[in-house]
Every structure is written in C-alpha cells, then in structure tokens.
Amino acid sequence: MRPLVSLVADPRVPLERLALAVAKRFDERIDEARAVAALDALAEGLALDEDPTLAARELRAHLHSRHGFDGDDTHYYAPENGDLAHVLRTRRGLPLTLSVIYAAVARRVGHEVEPIGFPGHVLVRHGGPGGVHQDPFHGGRVLGDVDLAHLAARFLGHPGRLEAEHLLPIGRPALAVRILANFRNAFARRHDHARALLACDALVELTNAAEARRDRGMHALALGANAAAEADLEAYLEARPTAHDVEAVQAALRRCLVGATLN
User: Fold this and answer.
1) In Å, what is the CA distance from 9 to each residue of 13, 98, 190, 237?
2) Are residues 131 and 258 in the same domain?
3) What is the DSSP letter of 76?
4) Domain count, the chain
C-alpha cells in the first residue's frame, strides 16, 4: 500500500483516487478500478455549458435528478458514507464524498469544479473565485450569497459574517484529513476503537498534530494497549500543557499506568 503522505503530495493522483485510497485503509475489499469505471460511466453523454450557473444546473440535473445522488440524512454518521465506492453504489453520502463525485464527473467532461472547504459542510464551486457555489448534499442546489450566509450561521453556531476564507478550495492534505476525521468520528460513535485508532494513526502520519496523538492514545487505552496510549497521551500533555482537557487526559494517563502495573 502506497504511503498516504506520498499520495497526498502527488498532484497526478486525482482526488477520487486519493479518497478511495484513504477508504481502503479501512476496507481492503474496495475495488478502486470498479469505482473509477463507475465515475467514467457517469460522465458518458454529459456536456456542461461554459457559463458557471448553467453548468451547475446541468450537473445537478445529471447527478441528482437523473442518477439520484443526494445526501444521506438518515444514516449520516455511518462510516460507509465516507467510502467513495460505497457512495457510488448507493447514491447517498456525505457532503465531502458527494463533492468529490461532482468534481470527478465534471473533470471528465473538461469542466473544472472545485471542492470548497466550507465550515462543516463541503461544497463545490464552478467558475473559480467569485464563481457559482453548489451543495451536492442537498440535491445539488445552487447557492446564492444569502444561502451561503445562512449555511455559515448554521455550521459556525452564530450569525457571524461570511468570510472569504470559508469559500477557499480545499487542498489535497485538508481533503484527506477531513475524510479521515469523518471515519474517526464514525467509528468512535460505534465504539469501534480498533478502526478509530487506524484513522487516528493516519491523521498522525499526515499532520503530526498533538490532538491526533491524544485521540490515538485514547483509543489505544480503550483497547488495552497501555504502553502506546501512555506515549501518545504524554506527548499531548507536553505539547498542550494548558489545553482545556488536560485534567481528562491526565486521568486517562493514570489509567494507563495502573493498567500497565496490573499487566
């Protein structure tokens, strides 16, 4: 398996291939070639106008109205919704996976669509900066400025002003991190500590963030891997000595030490 850091750094690897490679860390049965062929088939017969607004409407008609792609409100937190191959089969997924599909299909017909790292809810954009925004999770609807402001208020938790940074394209590293974070959260909700730890391990590999080490340590502790948990939790406390969760992490570290003594 090619190292994730190498895949992220290689611009020759399309976003859909990157998303599939991340998901395959959790399910080796994923058939990447079949998923790519499905994207190729979705692009057959599609033509998109040069005008960004018309192109967005045409892509919506093609992927949502004709092929049935939409957000999965019913099983939003299911880990499968982070698996691009699964979403291509079920036509239901997360904002991120659906945005990758929109971008991948558009690219196949010579039209650039950029996934946009909107807070908490990935969108796509046609026409570059100042272009037209579209929400693949909600039926591919086209979003005006008022819609974007309402969406920002919903996900930021306050009616703050929409900032330019909210509408920047999501880079390859950030895309991989968001996919992994979705898997981490989904597995953690199911108390699947082994696969949640795998996600955290990949996040440490990509970011070396102290928070990723903390999360990995917590899942290691839940699995009884006390020595690994101790190393990660100590590293977090050293890096973040004034963090809001220091007391909770210190308590977890004490459990590591007790567990190691008992073993």
Assistant:
1) 9, 22, 31, 30
2) no
3) T
4) 2
For residue 263, name the pLDDT band (cuts at 50, 70, 90): low
Domain boundary among 133, 167, 201: 167
- Of 210, 208, 230, the closest CA to residue 218 belongs to 230
Whether residues 57 and 129 share a domain: the answer is: yes
199 lies in some domain: no
Please tell me whether residues 65 and 125 are part of one structural domain: yes
**Which residues, 6 or more positions from 172, have their beta carbon under 8 angstroms from its beta carbon?**
8, 9, 11, 15, 18
Q: How far apart are CA 78 and CA 186, in angstroms?
A: 6
Say whether both 155 and 68 belong to one domain: yes
At 100-110, the pLDDT tens digits run: 999 999 999 99
Query: CB–CB of 194/217 below 8 Å?
Result: no
Distances (CA, A) of 94 to 3, 165, 237: 25, 22, 33
Q: Which domain holds residue 245?
A: 209-262
Q: Which residues contact 225 (CB under 8 A, 6 or more apart)?
A: none
Residue 211 CB contacts under 8 Å (≥ 6 apart), including other chains: 236, 240
Q: Is 174 within the bounds of a domain?
A: no
What pLDDT, in 10s, does the model give residues 64-98?
999 999 999 999 999 999 999 999 999 999 999 99
Report if pTM > 0.90.
yes
And the tokens for 80? 């499968």
